TrEMBL record:
Name of this protein: Biliverdin-producing heme oxygenase
Keyword Metal-binding in record: yes
Top-level taxonomy: Bacteria, Bacillati, Actinomycetota, Actinomycetes, Micrococcales
GO molecular function: heme binding; heme oxygenase (decyclizing) activity; metal ion binding
Residues that bind heme b: R18, H25, Y132, R179
Keyword vocabulary terms for this entry: Heme, Iron, Metal-binding
UniProt record, GO biological process: heme catabolic process; heme oxidation; response to oxidative stress
Low complexity bias (residue ranges): 1-15
Region span, Disordered: 1-24
Length: 218
């Protein structure tokens, strides 16, 4: 008796993340707050409120990355080029004024998101799920958000630095390198499944923030 082997597509982490969050991505993209923001139905204040929430999210995400790197456990997945907190602070200084730090408040969904990031900060594969969801999103759809915010609400470059990656000259090859790093993490099947599941959690946490922002700004 002969056995025939059925060729199977390679299951890389990056392809599993993309496929495993495709549905969540279109849900997030279609949310009222995001759709309203990119189609000019909201306001500069709504954009500013999003930037404020991003401060809490990236502070926690980047603290997690720094912790993994300090422990020598980041496997090259933490890139200085991606660091967003200084850009968000500078955007907020422009949007809210020099006393911006005294004027920011974080929504309950944002606090929940930040807490989840703290809980993921000693596990590289869980961190990877969150970093993937945010950074690849910023390098992709984020670029659309930037253009639309500038077009519809007249926000100058000083207020959208979050979407600029001055140390990354070409976004597409950088995203390919990022995916290669994800694929090189060497996860077993169970870790891979847990990472995709955590990315779905990350999308849900983002959606919850957009829902709360939508209730305030739509
Ligand atoms: C206006 C809203 C959005 C638009 C127009 C948009 C658009 C896009 C596009 C065109 C890509 C594909 C880029 C590529 O293959 O190189 C992409 C990828 C991605 N987006 Fe979005 N996006 C939006 C919102 C979001 C949100 C809210 C998140 C998560 C919080 C997100 C996370 C991602 C991720 C993780 C990827 C990488 C997918 C992959 O290749 O694995 N996006 N987005």
């Amino acid at each position: 008796m002969t056995t025939t082997s059925v060729p199977t597509a390679p299951t890389t982490l990056s392809s599993c993340l993309r496929e495993g969050t495709r549905e969540q991505h279109s849900q997030a993209e279609g949310m009222e707050f995001i759709d309203g923001l990119v189609n000019g139905r909201l306001s500069r204040e709504a954009y500013t409120a999003l930037a404020v929430q991003q401060l809490a999210i990236y502070t926690a995400l980047e603290a997690a990355g720094a912790q993994l790197r300090a422990a020598g456990a980041d496997q090259g997945l933490v890139f200085d080029e991606l660091t967003r907190v200084p850009a968000i602070e500078s955007d907020l200084a422009f949007l809210l004024g020099a006393d911006w730090a005294a004027r920011v408040t974080f929504l309950p969904a944002t606090q929940e998101y930040a807490q989840r990031l703290v809980a993921c900060s000693s596990d590289l594969s869980l961190y990877a799920a969150h970093a993937y969801t945010r950074y690849l999103g910023d390098l992709s759809g984020g670029q659309v958000v930037k253009r639309m915010v500038q077009r519809h609400y007249g926000v100058p470059d000083e207020g959208v630095g979050f979407y600029d990656f001055p140390q990354i000259h070409k976004l597409k090859p950088f995203k390919d390198v990022y995916r290669e790093r994800l694929d090189g993490l060497g996860l077993d099947d169970a870790q891979l499944a847990a990472t995709v599941e955590e990315a779905r959690v990350a999308f849900r946490l983002n959606q919850a923030v957009f829902a709360e922002l939508g209730a305030l700004h739509n």
